[in-house]
Structure formats: C-alpha cells, structure tokens
C-alpha cells in the first residue's frame, strides 16, 4: 500500500500509542508512595547450577552434609547425601533436579537433608537440640536473602519411600536479620516474619507440585533472609536408608500486588491493625 508522508506518520503514531497502551495494561497501577522494589526469588531453585565435584558436589546456594558444621564424633556424619539428577519435573525447561537421600550410620538413620542455610551437627543423637539448620547471616554460602513478602512457596517433589505413610517435609521461614535456626528455640521465634510448612507422603513415587502459603506473624519485623529445609523424614533419625527425595523448581509466589512493596508494606500493615 502506497502512503504519503502524512499517512506514514499517522500510522507510526498509532503504533506507538498502541504499544504504550499494552505496556500500561501489563502493570499494576502504581499508587502514590509505593516503593519500587523487585521481588526476591530463591537462587538456583531449579537446581541447574552445581559447584564442587565428586563427593564435594552440592547445588549452588544450597547445602547438605558435606558443608556441615561438626564437632567431635559428629564429623563422621559429614558425607555426601545429595546429587544432581536428570529426572526433572514434568514440563520443566531445565535439565536437572536435586536428589537427597538417607543413609545408615552404624544403625542410625541420617535423613537426606538440603537447606539454604548450614547444617549444624552438634550431637550423634539425631533428635538432639544441638542438631539444627541455621542461617549464617555473615556468610553468603549459608544464607539466601529475601526482603520481600511472598504469599506462598511452590516446589515439585518426587519422594521415593517404601512406606506409603512416611512423611517427608519442607519448612521455610522468613526472618529478620539474625542467625535463625530450625528447629527454632524461644530466642529464634521472636525473629520470625512468616512460616510455610508442609509434610508430604510418597504419592506412589510420582512428581507432585505443592504450593504452601506463608503464615505471617510478629508484625513490624523487616524480612531479611529465608531459611528453607527439605528432608526425607519429618523427624530426625527416622525412616529408611533407602529413602530418596527429588526436588525441582522451588519458587516464591507473589500473587498479592500490594505485597510487592516488601518490608515497607508489611510494617505499614502492622501500624494499621
Ligand atoms: Ca531443574
């Protein structure tokens, strides 16, 4: 179609206006005073990136027993119980998942465990309070920064277990600036901004997608870190040495546009209650 100069300019102007219209429709309307903050996400939630090699190999930004803090006899628990797997969740764009697995140490079951913090083994008795996972706020290898307020955490799991009633678990705690530990003590509890917790059974060893909402508490705190833990059994030292848990695509869900303005939003909410 042949057009004169004016026609071409009008067509170009129309295209520009249409483009701007689509951009405007794609975003939540900004409100006066809204801080502009990007949502935080879990680093390497798809487990495509790995570091170390052989018996030292761990997914980047996640930790298992090889990088655990130990003392005395607990050092013998510092062995590999995590590996990359090519068994990815259905529909995944990636090529890897993570597999954590249990093992027996002189008759005692060590659950497969993976955390964004560091595993601390202070006792050879699995249920002892000196065994916990902890955010190390002064060490980037052992923490993940989350300063926004997600609604939920979503992930895929494939739990291979010979007992259909056995429960694995995921726990995620959003907390303020401190070295929070899981299981928590009374002094840790006051630092909790929000928690998400889910136990799950084997489901015939198939991939399942779980979405777990955060329960917000302790209003007025500023979120700084998220401590996430996956384990092959909800209770330490329980289960079977053959238990294994595959995990893929861990992500934070922000469905409430108002919560995108992170700590400022949350603190404001506590003021209006
Ligand atoms: Ca993946």
Q: What's the architecture in CATH terms?
A: Sandwich
Tally of individual helices: 3
CATH class: Mainly Beta
Main β-sheet description: 5 strands, antiparallel
Describe the structure.
- It is a single chain.
- By secondary structure, this protein is an alpha+beta fold.
- It has one domain (about 35-270): Jelly Rolls.
- The protein contains three helices and 18 strands.
- The strands form five sheets. The chain has a five-stranded antiparallel sheet, with no helix packed on it. A five-stranded antiparallel sheet has the order 8-17-12-14-16, with no helix packed on it.
- Strand 6 and strand 7 (about 110) form a beta hairpin.
- The radius of gyration is 23 Å and the shape is globular.
- The structure holds calcium ion.
- The site of calcium ion has 10 residues, from strand 18.
């Amino acid at each position: 179609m042949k057009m004169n100069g004016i026609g071409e300019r009008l067509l170009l102007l129309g295209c520009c206006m249409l483009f701007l219209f689509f951009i405007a429709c794609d975003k939540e309307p900004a409100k006066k005073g809204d801080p502009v903050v990007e949502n935080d996400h879990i680093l390497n939630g798809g487990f495509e990136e790995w570091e170390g090699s052989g018996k030292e190999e761990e997914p980047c930004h996640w930790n298992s027993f090889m990088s655990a803090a130990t003392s005395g006899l607990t050092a013998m628990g510092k062995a590999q119980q995590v590996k990359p797997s090519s068994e990815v969740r259905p529909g995944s764009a990636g090529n890897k998942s993570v597999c954590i697995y249990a093992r027996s140490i002189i008759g005692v079951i060590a659950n497969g465990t993976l955390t964004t913090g560091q595993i601390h083994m202070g006792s050879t008795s699995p249920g002892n309070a000196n065994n916990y996972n902890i955010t190390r706020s002064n060490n980037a290898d052992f923490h993940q920064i989350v300063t926004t307020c997600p609604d939920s955490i979503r992930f895929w799991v494939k739990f291979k277990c010979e007992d259909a009633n056995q429960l694995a678990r995921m726990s995620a705690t959003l907390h303020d600036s401190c070295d929070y530990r899981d299981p928590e003590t009374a002094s840790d509890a006051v630092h909790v901004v929000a928690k998400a917790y889910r136990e799950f059974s084997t489901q015939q060893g198939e991939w399942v997608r779980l979405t777990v909402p955060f329960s917000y508490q302790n209003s007025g705190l500023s979120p700084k870190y998220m401590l996430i833990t996956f384990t092959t059994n909800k209770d330490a030292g329980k289960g079977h040495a053959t238990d294994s848990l595959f995990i893929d695509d861990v992500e934070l869900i922000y469905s409430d546009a108002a919560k995108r303005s992170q700590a400022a939003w949350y603190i404001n909410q506590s003021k209006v209650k």
